[in-house]
């Protein structure tokens, strides 16, 4: 029988791994279990650029957590990643990049105080209605996952690869279960509000690009590229209700064409790989507690495309809920 621990975290993507690290570093005995290793989860293919709450419009979050709550989670992430950018081996760095939208934003006054802000010149954002530069953290997810995995081990936590058939099964192994299974929470909890949002990215050989580009327009297609050394991650898509993780060749061509329209050097770059993952689409993040099989179950899923940015804020929120165990978290 598996040794009983304080907390079993289910799901090894960025939400689960971050939560496990936070709880382990606060002194709890933590086991993390996922169907796949962190580097093979949806989070590993995230574009991972940190805007904090700045592009989160209260009007767009109706039905979600209160805007003040999601804003606080975003700010916690922005602060944490900015601090990590000063540490070697984290995969995080602060770098200038362009943000662009195909429609004008009614009030963009908030962005003028951001580090590195300046409006783009017309030739810096072809085909976009508005664009500006700002300097924020971007994350090389495979390197960042290695960093988090090392932190989990250093804090005494363990990582197991294997499925969890039910919350009751997990409850037999620990008095507290944290469910961070993302889109797959639909199967584990029968949550009808979860809808997969399939995303596809193309990794190409970096032709010498040092600045990122990120489109924040609404819709199923966006243009973005993130340089990570000799790799350039190009995106992307957001297709609802599609469970396939198989690469789509037509989407690959479209992604390269969109990115090359902004940066022509990408057109001739050698393709190194194509990756697809499933974001956890939900009308609101589910961060709440219930009982199952005699254990406390804390759900922490439904972050859509904002999982990296909200990961630390939500991990801290789980820690606050566990203060009722009588141990400091």
Could you explain how this protein is built, in words?
The protein has 329 residues and is an alpha/beta fold. It has 2 domains: 1-91 and 140-194 and 282-329, Rossmann fold (3-Layer(aba) Sandwich); 94-136 and 197-278, 2-Layer Sandwich (D-Amino Acid Oxidase, Chain A, domain 2). 25% of the residues lie in helices and 29% in strands. The chain has 7 helices and 15 strands. It has helices at residues 14-25, 67-84, 141-154, 167-171, 185-189, 249-262, 307-321; strands at 7-10, 30-34, 92-101, 118-119, 130-139, 158-161, 176-179, 195-205, 212-215, 221-228, 231-237, 239-240, 271-281, 286-292, 295-301. The strands form 2 sheets. Strands 3, 4, 5, 8, 9, 10, 11, 12 and 13 form a 9-stranded mixed sheet that branches. A 6-stranded mixed sheet has the order 6-2-1-7-15-14. Helix 2 (67-84) crosses helix 7. The protein is globular and about 60 Å long. Residues 56-64 have low confidence and may be disordered. It comes from Sphaerisporangium dianthi. Its EC number is 1.4.3.3. This is D-amino-acid oxidase. GO terms for molecular function: oxidoreductase activity. Keywords: FAD, Flavoprotein, Oxidoreductase.
Assigned CATH architecture of the largest domain: 3-Layer(aba) Sandwich
Globally, the shape reads globular
Please, how many domains? 2
Strand content: 25-35%
Structural class by secondary-structure content: alpha/beta
Largest sheet, if any? Answer: 9 strands, mixed
Span between termini: 27 Å
Q: List low-confidence stretches.
A: 56-64
InterPro entries: D-amino_acid_oxidase_CS (IPR006181), DAO (IPR023209), FAD-dep_OxRdtase (IPR006076)
Domain FAD dependent oxidoreductase: 6-319
Organism: Sphaerisporangium dianthi
Protein name: D-amino-acid oxidase
